[in-house]
Structure formats: structure tokens, C-alpha cells
Design a protein that fits this description.
Elements: E1 27-28, H1 40-50, H2 62-72, E2 79-82, H3 84-96, E3 103-106, H4 112-119, E4 124-127, E5 146-150, H5 162-171, E6 177-180, E7 201-206, E8 219-223, H6 225-238, H7 245-255, H8 258-281, E9 285-286, E10 293-297, H9 303-312, E11 315-316, E12 328-332, H10 336-353
Helix pairs in contact: 1-7, 2-7, 3-4, 3-6, 8-10
Bound molecules: 4'-deoxy-4'-aminopyridoxal-5'-phosphate (PMP).
Length: 354
């Protein structure tokens, strides 16, 4: 740290992204990316957009915003496109959290929430998950702060129902409830239709998972017009050109190819079932994941040990060094061949150590 680093930030513990090693060709099951390439239309449009990189992109992101709004059945003033969904989440911490509305979220959830709270000097409260890693919705009924819930949650993959989220919205009329739907396309019902009924609902979604565009950085928020206006105030005060020209074009391409996205999501869900059944047969227990990952533990091997043994065999998964999670690994659901390779490797590791 330099002697110039602001005292506002010198206690900040930054987010640690999953490893992106270059030294060998790993089967990458550690950052919940899609195993499928982006839609050919996305690639084509992005290439064409590259010809105009000397010009700033449209700060209003008009065409893509209209396309996303159409897909969701809402108006374009109810949508804000961002640089990954990380950016809409950060904007929400900036816009809706302060001393009188601290951030509230589960103790086990997406690791960026604590970072955004610290970055924005916002007080925050972490509510412990139940023993079985489910969210006790009763603990979120206090109308005392801005709530952030990933649905399905990460790294557990466990989802709340829309009715459970609606109960939280009703019980917190004076605070924004942010529902982070990064993994919604793998079998969870979206809360987006509730934005017309609740002016305190903001839904965040991403193109990184189901739409194979993690490398392009594209996400969005959906909420009532006033909420989106507030978030636009933050956007135009930080980075008006937050979506680059090529990403915007790729976003339009993939939106014109919804059948491709749907087909890939179905394959991932089938591969999730395959993986869970195969791991169960090997003695693993898992949470009921509705995401593009499984969260698994085995009674005979420590989570960190399994992580390392898999890495030695060329397969990367994600291990979290957090007290209640040490036994577990989060394994992204990839292609069928990747999941077969994972199961074979796990089988060999369990055999080697028995
Ligand atoms: N929310 C959750 C729960 C996530 O796991 C992630 C991915 N790491 C994000 C949001 C952010 O994804 P992105 O910025 O790529 O849209």
C-alpha cells in the first residue's frame, strides 16, 4: 500500500476472482462460465462493431435496452444495461445503501456483496444461513435495510420461490430488495414480473452464464422507472459509456438467438442431473442446486484436498476457505465430456486415498 492510499479504503479487502491459470490447459469448472461458445450472431455483430471502435458507444445503449425490455415484457425505462451484473450490484450499493438503510445479506452468498459494502462505506449485516444452507426468510422481514439476495444463492445453488421473495418485498416497503438472478436461467422462476407491483424491487441479471458472454461483461437491472432513474444518475456520474461497442453488438446478436441460449441451458440442466447422480453414487452429498454448478462434499475427503487432487489431474473447481464451507467444492456444470472427465477423476482420487 502506498502512503497516498485513502484512509476511506485502506481496510478494503478486494474480491478474489476464481483462478484463470495459463500454465496448462485445464478443464475449467471453477468460475461458472458456459462451456459453449457465444452465439455465432454475437460473434458476427461484435466483429462488425470493431470497425467503428474510434467512436464512443451509445451511452443510452438504446437498441439493446429495448431488446432486453421486449424479452422481459417490460418498458425500456425499466431496464439498465451494465458492465456485467457486478456493476448494477455496485450501483445499487451506491444508490440505495447508507447509515439509515444498511445492506443486509446472507453470511454465505456471493462474495462481492461485502466488498461493495466496504467500498461504498456502507454498514452491513450478514444473516447466517440455516444449518442446511437454506435462507430463513423470516430473518429478512424487519424493514430495516437494503436486502441483497442471490436467487438461486451462490455457492449453494438453493433457490427461494417467487412467493417467498414476494413476502420479503411486502415486509420491507421502505427499503430496496435486490434479487440477484445471475443463475435464474437454469431452472428458477424470475421475479421480474413483480416489478410492476413493488416499487422497491430491483432484479439483476447477467449475460455471463446462460448467454456465454462472461468475457464481454454485460448485465442489467430491472425495476420500476424511478429506481432505474436513480441507478442512471449513478451511471452517468461514474461511467456513461459503461458498455463498449463490441459488447453491445454481441448482446444484440445473442438476443436474436434465444433458441440457442435455451438449448444450452437445457443441456446444462441435463448435465447437472447427470453429475449429481454420478457424484451421489460415489458417496457425495450435495445441495439442491438450481444453478450451473453443484456444491458437493464427501465424508472421506476434505474439500481442499479434493480441490488440489483434481487440480493435479488438470481439473479446476472452486474451494472456499470459509469455516462452514471447508468440506465442500463448487463445481461448474460444463459439457457432458467435461463432467464425465470430472467423475472419472474423482473416482480415481477416492480410490487412491482409500
Ligand atoms: N451474482 C452472482 C451470484 C455471481 O455468482 C456472479 C458471478 N461471479 C455475479 C453476480 C456477477 O457476474 P457478472 O458480473 O459476470 O455478470
Amino acid at each position: 500500500m502506498s502512503r497516498f492510499f485513502s484512509s476511506k479504503l485502506n481496510k478494503l479487502v478486494p474480491y478474489v476472482p476464481g483462478e484463470q491459470p495459463k500454465e496448462r490447459d485445464y478443464i475449467k469448472l471453477n468460475t461458472n462460465e458456459s462451456p459453449f461458445p457465444p452465439s455465432p450472431k454475437a460473434v458476427k455483430y461484435a466483429g462488425e462493431a470493431a470497425d467503428l471502435l474510434q467512436l464512443y458507444p451509445d451511452p443510452d445503449c438504446k437498441m439493446l435496452t429495448e431488446k432486453v425490455a421486449d424479452m422481459l415484457g417490460v418498458e425500456s425505462q425499466e431496464v439498465l444495461l451494465t458492465n456485467g451484473s457486478d456493476e448494477i450490484l455496485n450501483f445499487a450499493f451506491m444508490a440505495f445503501c447508507d447509515e439509515s438503510s444498511p445492506a443486509i445479506f446472507p453470511d454465505i452468498t456471493y462474495g462481492f456483496y461485502t466488498v461493495f459494502a466496504q467500498l461504498n462505506n456502507v454498514p452491513y449485516e450478514e444473516i447466517p444461513l440455516e444449518e442446511d444452507f437454506t435462507i430463513d426468510t423470516n430473518a429478512y422481514m424487519g424493514n430495516r435495510g437494503t436486502i441483497f439476495i442471490a436467487n438461486p444463492n451462490a455457492p449453494t445453488g438453493i433457490a427461494l420461490s417467487v412467493a417467498e421473495i414476494e413476502a420479503i418485498l411486502k415486509a420491507n416497503p421502505d427499503h430496496v430488495v435486490v434479487i440477484d438472478e445471475a443463475y435464474v436461467d437454469f431452472g428458477t422462476e424470475s421475479c421480474v414480473p413483480l416489478i410492476r407491483k413493488y416499487d422497491n424491487l430491483l432484479v439483476a441479471q447477467t449475460f455471463s452464464k446462460s448467454r456465454s458472454m462472461a468475457g464481454a461483461r454485460l448485465g442489467f437491472g430491472v425495476g420500476c422507472k424511478a429506481l432505474i432513474q436513480d441507478l442512471n444518475t449513478v451511471k452517468y456520474s461514474t461511467n456513461p459509456y459503461n458498455i463498449n461497442r463490441m459488447t453491445m453488438a454481441a448482446g444484440l446478436g445473442v438476443m436474436e438467438d434465444e433458441a440457442y441460449t435455451k438449448k444450452n441451458c437445457k443441456t446444462i440442466m441435463d448435465n447437472r442431473t447427470y453429475t449429481m447422480e454420478a457424484l451421489e453414487a460415489l458417496g457425495f452429498t450435495m445441495t439442491d442446486s438450481k444453478a450451473n454448478f453443484v456444491f458437493a462434499k464427501h465424508p472421506a475427503i476434505e474439500g481442499a484436498k479434493l480441490y488440489q487432487a483434481l487440480k493435479n489431474k488438470g481439473i479446476l473447481v472452486r474451494h472456499f476457505d470459509k469455516s462452514r464451507l471447508t468440506q465442500y467444492n463448487r463445481i461448474t456444470v460444463g459439457s457432458r465430456a467435461e463432467m464425465e472427465a470430472l467423475v472419472t477423476a474423482v473416482e480415481a482420487i477416492l480410490e487412491e486415498q482409500s
